[in-house]
């Protein structure tokens, strides 16, 4: 598709939760149509019918400030090239084109369509993902959101304990662990644990399968050495309700995350590319699924590993003007993909001599830990991309540099 092939129309959609404004421009920038549609099945059908009056779907690229969603899916299924655009880019474009500063939903749709018309050759169309990738992305992202919610809930519980019963926070290593939650369920206040003995604590740990390898005497010493908790019966009643409420939330989140872990393992195993992403050293199942879910399976979109590296934000941004030149961190990226790939890179250096060598050389050159991990992640992206393009799992024996590192380590 190009502006020289047939009649092109450019569609801009200003997305909203209930109603979307649509603007259609011709090749010369003339407004051909402007209307609104509801965020309903009937609204999507109306959009397809209205656009179909002007040209074939493949000749009507659509720009929208969203990379996914049911509206995007409907446009892709209809055959429209969909160009996700950054809200900040549209904001800057609007400020330069609409000098009065006026703003409205129909006006934004016109701005988006004109942005698409002018920058059509510079924009990359979204590629439809397979059903298996969409399913995996849904569970992986939901798990990430629940993990973040658990971190917030644990911090809230820790704040309550710090204020009223520090000993309960100190006794076990992790507040979100099953043993810590069970202890708080049994003893939600300082008063309820005031007469706890070493024998009782040992029996409690045995009954709940405690695996921390700390004797009851040590655990009880941690509890007693912490600042004394609130013993006032009126205050303790409120603390009890607050602690048990937070314990209930964290327990529910633990269960949900565990269920999603099982779903992720199943969906990664059933995905055609699942074996490829799980084959890398220390990738595991959840981390491999996180990378695969954000990386996707549209091979025609990423024709070079540098495209993936830029999407993941592990390549720097260079700014040069005159005699000045600076290299800075890349902020605009898929942050979920960046976290997934850098997490894998950090883990991989403990299982791959080749990865450890790249990391150590980066550190020796003066780079801090996060920078060195991004350097390693970029190296891994090239390897992952090649395996992904070839459809073959990672094999260190076929990876020349990795094989050489292993041989050198064995010789040493």
From TrEMBL:
**Annotated ranges, domain Transposase IS116/IS110/IS902 C-terminal:** 275-356
GO terms under biological process = DNA transposition
Give the Gene Ontology MF terms in alphabetical order: DNA binding; transposase activity
Domain Transposase IS110-like N-terminal residues, every copy: 11-166
- Which InterPro entries does this entry report, sorted A to Z? Transp_IS110-like_N, Transpos_IS110, Transposase_20
* Name assigned to this protein: IS110 family transposase
Query: What organism does the record attribute this protein to?
Result: Amycolatopsis echigonensis
């Amino acid at each position: 598709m190009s502006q020289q092939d047939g009649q092109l129309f450019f569609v801009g959609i200003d997305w909203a939760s209930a109603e979307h404004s649509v603007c259609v421009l011709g090749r010369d920038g003339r407004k051909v149509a402007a209307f609104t549609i509801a965020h309903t099945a009937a609204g999507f059908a109306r959009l397809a019918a209205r656009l179909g009056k002007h040209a074939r779907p493949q000749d009507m690229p659509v720009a929208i400030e969203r990379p996914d969603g049911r509206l995007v899916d409907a446009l892709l299924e209809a055959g429209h090239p969909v160009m996700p655009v950054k809200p900040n880019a549209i904001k800057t474009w609007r400020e330069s084109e609409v000098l009065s500063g006026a703003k409205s939903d129909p006006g934004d749709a016109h701005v988006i369509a004109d942005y698409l018309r002018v920058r059509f050759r510079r924009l990359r169309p979204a590629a439809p993902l397979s059903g298996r990738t969409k399913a995996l992305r849904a569970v992986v992202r939901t798990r990430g959101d629940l993990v973040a919610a658990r971190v917030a809930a644990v911090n809230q519980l820790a704040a309550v304990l710090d204020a009223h019963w520090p000993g309960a926070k100190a006794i076990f290593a992790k507040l979100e662990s099953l043993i810590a939650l069970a202890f708080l369920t049994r003893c939600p206040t300082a008063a309820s644990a005031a007469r706890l003995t070493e024998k009782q604590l040992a029996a409690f740990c045995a009954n709940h399968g405690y695996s921390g390898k700390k004797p009851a005497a040590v655990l009880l010493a941690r509890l007693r050495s912490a600042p004394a908790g609130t013993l006032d019966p009126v205050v303790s009643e409120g603390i009890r309700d607050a602690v048990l409420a937070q314990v209930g939330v964290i327990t529910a989140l633990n269960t949900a995350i565990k269920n999603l872990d099982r779903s992720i393992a199943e969906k990664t195993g059933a995905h055609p590319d699942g074996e490829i992403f799980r084959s890398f050293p220390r990738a595991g199942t959840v981390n491999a699924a996180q990378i695969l879910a954000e990386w996707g399976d549209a091979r025609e979109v990423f024709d070079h590993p540098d495209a993936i590296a830029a999407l993941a934000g592990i390549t720097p941004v260079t700014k040069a003007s005159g005699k000045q030149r600076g290299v800075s961190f890349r902020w605009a990226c898929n942050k979920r993909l960046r976290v997934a790939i850098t997490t894998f890179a950090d883990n991989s250096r403990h299982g791959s001599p080749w990865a450890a060598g790249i990391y150590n050389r980066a550190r020796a050159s003066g780079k801090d830990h996060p920078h060195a991990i991004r350097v390693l992640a970029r190296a891994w992206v090239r390897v992952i991309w090649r395996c992904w393009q070839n459809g073959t799992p990672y094999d260190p024996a076929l990876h020349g540099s990795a094989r050489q590192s292993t041989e050198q380590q064995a010789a040493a």
